[in-house]
Specification:
84 residues, five-stranded mixed beta sheet, single chain, ThiS/MoaD-like, alpha+beta, Mopterin_synth/thiamin_S_b, 3 helices
Length: 84
C-alpha cells in the first residue's frame, strides 16, 4: 500500500494541530477516511469544504475513490481561502 504525506493548510492545519502526517492509502478516499479516523471533530468538518491536490494536480470533481495515490506522493488539503 502506498505511503503518502498529507499536508494541511490554513484552517485544516489548525484543526489537525500538525502541518503534515504520513498515511498508508491506495486512494484519496482511503487517505481521507484515515484522516477522519485520526482527527474526529473539527478537521472532519473542515474537510467537507476543502479541495485537494495530488502531487500538485487538482482533484476537481473526480470521485475520491477513483483518485489513485502513488508511493511517496503528497495530498494537499486546501480549505477555502479568504481574499484574492
Amino acid at each position: 500500500m502506498p505511503k503518502v504525506t498529507v499536508r494541511y493548510w490554513a484552517a485544516a492545519k489548525a484543526a489537525a494541530g500538525v502541518a503534515e502526517e504520513a498515511y498508508d492509502a491506495d486512494t484519496l478516499a482511503e487517505a481521507l477516511d484515515a484522516v477522519r479516523g485520526r482527527h474526529p471533530g473539527e478537521l472532519t468538518r473542515v474537510l467537507q469544504r476543502c479541495s485537494f491536490l495530488i502531487d500538485g494536480d487538482p482533484v476537481g470533481t473526480r470521485g475520491h475513490e477513483t483518485v489513485r495515490l502513488a508511493d511517496g506522493g503528497t495530498v494537499e488539503v486546501l480549505p477555502p481561502f479568504a481574499g484574492g
